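Sorry to interrupt, but I need a hand with the structure work. Could you add the entry underneath, on a fresh line?
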Amino acid sequence: MSKRKLHIHQVDTFTDKAFQGCPASVIFGAEGMNDEELETVANEMAPTNVAYVYPSKKGDFTLRFFTNNGEEIKFCVSSALAALTCVSGQGLFGVKKGKSYPFKIEAGGNLYPFHVEMKAENTASITYDMKEITLETCNERLDQIALRLGLPTHLLDPNHAPLIEKSARHLYLPTPKLENLAEINLDAQFALPYLREKNLATISFISPETMESKHHAHARSWTPWLSQKEQSFLGAIPGGVAHFLNRCGWIKKEPKTLVLEQGDFLGRPGRANIHIQKNSAQVQTSAYHLCETLLEY
């Protein structure tokens, strides 16, 4: 009886170094697997999220995304970056290995544009756009939000309003200092009823203080719908964070390109460069191909 053969890649995203940033798994060879099998293998890949790669008739290739608990999700930026790094680094789907290349990823019937440039055999520079960023003021006081999240009120900055990214439903909460960020110990299960009530996808705490002096903001993020754990780098928020910083007056008119830090409190520092535009942003970051293995079963 023939065995199933899956080629599994491990990639660290939002970094150009091993064991930093956000880890993600990429799997080739899943054609013919049913949803139950996809969920089972994804669950085995914990603690990373998984992108399954398939051929595409509309784009350069198709991705299906699964969390590390086996739940399928519409899109995962980190897993998409990981897949792009694998495809570019190995010259798959007709791509010229190691070249600069514009991609269109098909996922959930939609096409997502990215641009990849291989900097070394195992390192990619990747750019993606975040469009239609609209922030609205949350209609609750910070002390009320802190109470609903089970957090001390002093961890949030009363001088700035909490903002919600309207379409993506990301909640951004102002945190004055890195020492306040360090104190945050969010119980995701406790916070989940508040997210349900407000129809929020994520919670991010943003501080203008940074680990590195030339950077502009540090973030800590949770997605309680999907995981009880903090995200080492949440790729869906950089554009919103940049506009949040602008609204708070935490950045000057120049520069228009900002650097966002995440993951340092988890020992996995990640970075992204964000170019602010009127109602959008362009994000540039890196990904590091860590290893490849063959799974036979």
